[in-house]
Amino acid sequence: MGGPCEVLAEVADETEARKITESVAACAWRVENKFSRYRSDNIVARINTAGGKPVEVDVETANLLDFAALMHRLSDGLFDITSGVLRKAWTFDGGRRLPTQSGIDALLPLVGWSKVRWVRPMIALSPGMEIDFGGIGKEYAVDQATQLAAQMSSAAVLVNFGGDLAVTRSRKENRAWRVGIESIDAGDRRAAMLVDLAAGALSTSGDTYRYVESEGRRLSHILDPRTGWPVNGAPRSVTVAAPTCTNAGMLTTLAMLRGPGAEAFLESEGVRHWVQRGT
Amino acid sequence: MAGAASAAAAAGVTDMADKEMKIGAALAAATCSLLGTATPGVSIAADAEPKWDVESAFLYYGESDDRVNDLSLSAHATRDFGDERTLGLDLSVDSLTGASPSGAIASGGAQTFTSPSGRETYRTPAGEIPLDDTFLDTRFALNGSWSQPLARLYTVNAGLGFSSEYDYQHIGANFGLTRDFNQRNTTLSAALAYAQDTVKPVGGIPLPLAQMTDVVDDDVSPGNRGDGSDTKNVLDVLLGVTQVLGRHSVLRVNLSYSDSSGYLTDPYKILSVVDPVTGDLIGRTPAPGASGPTGVYLHESRPDSRRKEALYAELRHDFSGKVLQVGYRYSTDDWEVDSHTVESRLRLPFGSSSYLEPHVRYYQQTAASFYRYSLANVTPLPGFASADARLSEMNALTFGLKYGHVNAGGNEWNARLELYRQTAKAPNEVLIGNQIGNAQMPDFDAVILQFGYHFKL
What we know:
The structure holds two protein chains of two kinds. Chain A is an alpha+beta fold. Chain A has helices at residues 14-35, 43-48, 59-74, 101-107, 134-152, 245-257, 262-269; strands spanning 5-9, 55-56, 117-119, 122-124, 157-161, 164-167, 177-182, 191-197, 200-206, 211-214, 217-220, 237-242, 273-276.
């Protein structure tokens, strides 16, 4: 999942805690193995390496592709699961290496969901194009694992995959889970803010560790698939609370993609949100 | 044209608003179908800051035999301003009624005393421990404190406190600093507090070991009084360490030093003067035409300084949700009052939103070097003497049970019942003649009943 994963379960019995943790871990590995773009033996690899030929996908993958198509439409093309190839030009490791415009221009023809032929259950990409569920997969895995934990145990469980998290229910004595949102200052170990979460999910998108610095400007890792460049004026960190982690994650991503309009977007959606901008 | 343009603009705004609204709804619906959930769960996410967190309580404290009764209302409010900056406010109002032991001993005959004001008398029947029933007071207290990080790993806090009752004023200030070490598993803290109290007893400050006089008229001051008021200063220094011991235990150790100086005497406490051989009360007759005490009673006298050192250790351990807290305190001072306190609480959660918390506490102390059950009628008198049972050999046992319930809104109400028994013993070396084997100490039982509500604003 590209980050530390943890399960907090409010159970007295070690066996039960172990059972929940192992099931959540198994669920996380299943989603990771099936949808990671780093593997060569999964459905994503088969789609990406089909060389223009259509690939028939299973129901779960089809559901994710439908979801991605809807996100693309709702975001006016800003959310695009084919934009991953731009990473060939960008390395968001906190360094100063910037790509050349010609390098980006060479990749742009390979980006664009509208170029994908998707007729459920068949998908065909033009040669060189790739899809990447990185923008959905982690939140989806949190929701899958949280649903599983809720089915297995009546205890309160919190599933946290690298800062995207959901809870099955409130803790004993109706206490909420207190979640700290990491400060955008990497050196500051204190939480920037605390959120009491009794039900639902939180998703955070931020650039604490993933950014490029250029002429003193910090460029976000959120790329505009239309230009190939980072979105201007995006907040350093956006956190959204929603009934599910997938829902929350999409809202943080859509907010990030709106750059300076992130706060206005979240206000108009009427969701609980916390935005951190650098000085 | 202008009208059409503005209508179009308005339509555009509406379209945009509709579109914005559609994102959330469409996204929620799409997420549900993706995850296969019928209806989305409800998110009750809320900011944990900044807001008020208030613990309010109503407390009744009642001692047996119609002694002291206290009705108290209190509120402890904290407000989190984010970044670990918190404001704390404490407010309490106490209403004390009843009678308290004056320090005089019980006698075979009825006894008459002049009340602290010097203007009237009260009687104690034969065989009973004399209680001064003019005890009645209302106390008001307010404390404010501020805490914030000073630098990375440092937290500083400072506070001011004030309390007032009709014969006693208190003003105090405190300052503390904590430093985290060892990945925040170890915290060292240092704190300093300074208080100045003013005592303004009814009838004025009695002279040390001055004899209780006959009743005087309103326009005359009793002859045994000095100034109208006096002060007391208290300096407290505390050094503490808190250590996390694994995932389930926390140990806290405090060392404290307290230096009190000034007027440390209780202006309402007296001693009975007795025959040096029999230990029986020496009789007295009021002046002709006057009313007054029927025995010889002297106002107590305590040293004007007290230095106290204490060690406190507390271990908390979480047994899978059941939290056990065990504490021990040792205290020693230059009045020779040495004390040990052992205290334990066990929090037992049950159901999904309730807990029970049994509590037990045992306290024992040695007598102060100047504690006297009574004073022998010999000269010279000792420099210091007090018959206050709280300075005698004493032990106290408390049993309590607390029940708490957290409602759906996350607020907690709780009820606590505690039973307290205090037993004092006069050391044999302070007993004289007939007192040996017959000394009556003002022991008592007390009940504490508290209702609390903990809520957020």
